């Protein structure tokens, strides 16, 4: 069936460290988004990246659609980066549904 | 402006109450979504409206009743809920529900059923 898998499920970093979060998906996609959910529940758009590479400050993302994965890079992490990171996907075969992975919970320690 | 506004932010209701959650966007988006999120889980799709018509219902119990009065507004009417329905309810919008456009989420309504 259609699946979105994220790894690792949990990640603890020291402030200043770099990290890579991974999202694997089981089928061809129209859209892939990365979100950061803050402690109050707000889902903040990080990247809209169905393919290619984008950068925004200390964050960057790469999606290789042909190999069905996406990576989110966080460099020089800060305590404010803590929270849950979700990737979400619109599959070509499942039009209209934005499906979320299980998320990666990131804790950045000072 | 990429804002989706949800009200109320918090809601406590009894099992016999009737309440409504509201969602509003002014981005000209024609698709709107309701998601339910339990603690430590990802958001799960409940309903999709496309051009003010219900296009997807993910087998949601009838005690949840969605309504899309116009292209900017989305309501979720709640009646006879159970304690297990306590969750964060998220609204989202996108330009359409096909071709995978970027989706934007509101800050959510945290619902507690007592």
Summary tags:
heterodimer, A: 110 residues, mainly beta, five-stranded antiparallel β-sheet, 11 strands, globular, B: 114 residues, seven-stranded mixed β-sheet
Principal-axis shape of chain A equals globular
What would you call the shape of chain B? globular
Residues in helix, % of chain A: under 10%
Separation, N- and C-terminal Cα atoms of chain B: 36 Å
Span of the ends, CA to CA of chain A: 41 Å
Describe the largest sheet of chain A.
Answer: 6 strands, mixed
- The number of helical elements of chain A comes to 0
Order of helices and strands of chain B: EEEEEEEEEEE
Biggest pleated-sheet summary of chain B: 7 strands, mixed
β-strand number of chain B = 11
Q: β content of chain A, as a range?
A: over 45%
The parts of chain A where pLDDT drops under 50 for at least 5 residues are: none
Mean residue pLDDT of chain B:
94
What is the radius of gyration of chain A? 13 Å
The largest contact between protein chains, plus residue counts on each side, is: A-B, 24 and 29 residues
Oligomer: heterodimer
Number of continuous helical runs of chain B? 0
Would you count the extended β strands of chain A for me? 11
- The computed structural class of chain A is mainly beta
What do the pLDDT scores of chain A average to?
94
Write the layout of secondary structure elements.
The complex is a heterodimer of chains A (110) and B (114).
Chain A: E1 4-7, E2 10-14, E3 19-25, E4 29-37, E5 43-48, E6 52-56, E7 59-64, E8 69-74, E9 83-91, E10 98-100, E11 104-109
Parallel strand pairs in A: 2-11
Antiparallel strand pairs in A: 1-3, 3-8, 4-5, 4-9, 6-7, 7-8, 9-10, 9-11
Chain B: E1 4-7, E2 10-13, E3 18-25, E4 31-37, E5 44-50, E6 53-57, E7 64-70, E8 73-79, E9 87-94, E10 104-105, E11 109-113
Parallel strand pairs in B: 2-11
Antiparallel strand pairs in B: 1-3, 3-8, 4-5, 4-9, 5-6, 7-8, 9-10, 9-11
């Amino acid at each position: 069936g259609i699946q979105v898998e994220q790894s690792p499920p949990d990640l603890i970093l020291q402030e200043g460290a770099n990290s890579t979060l991974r999202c694997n998906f089981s089928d061809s996609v129209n859209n892939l988004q990365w979100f950061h959910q803050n402690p109050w529940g707000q889902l903040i758009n990080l990247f809209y990246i169905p393919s290619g590479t984008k950068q925004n400050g200390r964050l960057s993302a790469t999606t290789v659609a042909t190999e069905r994965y996406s990576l989110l890079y966080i460099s020089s992490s800060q305590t404010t980066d803590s929270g849950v990171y979700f990737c979400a996907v619109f599959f070509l075969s499942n039009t209209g549904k934005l499906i979320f992975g299980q998320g990666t919970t990131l804790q950045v320690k000072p | 402006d990429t804002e989706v506004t949800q009200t109320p932010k918090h809601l406590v209701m009894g099992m016999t109450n009737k309440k409504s959650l509201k969602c509003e966007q002014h981005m000209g988006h024609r698709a709107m979504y309701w998601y339910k999120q339990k603690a430590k889980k990802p958001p799960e799709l409940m309903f999709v409206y496309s051009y003010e018509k219900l296009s997807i219902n993910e087998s949601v119990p009838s005690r949840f009743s969605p309504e899309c009065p116009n292209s900017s507004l989305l309501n979720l009417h709640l009646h006879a809920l159970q304690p297990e329905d306590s969750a964060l309810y998220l609204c989202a919008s996108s330009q359409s529900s096909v071709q995978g456009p970027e989706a934007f989420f509101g800050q959510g309504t945290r619902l507690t059923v007592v």
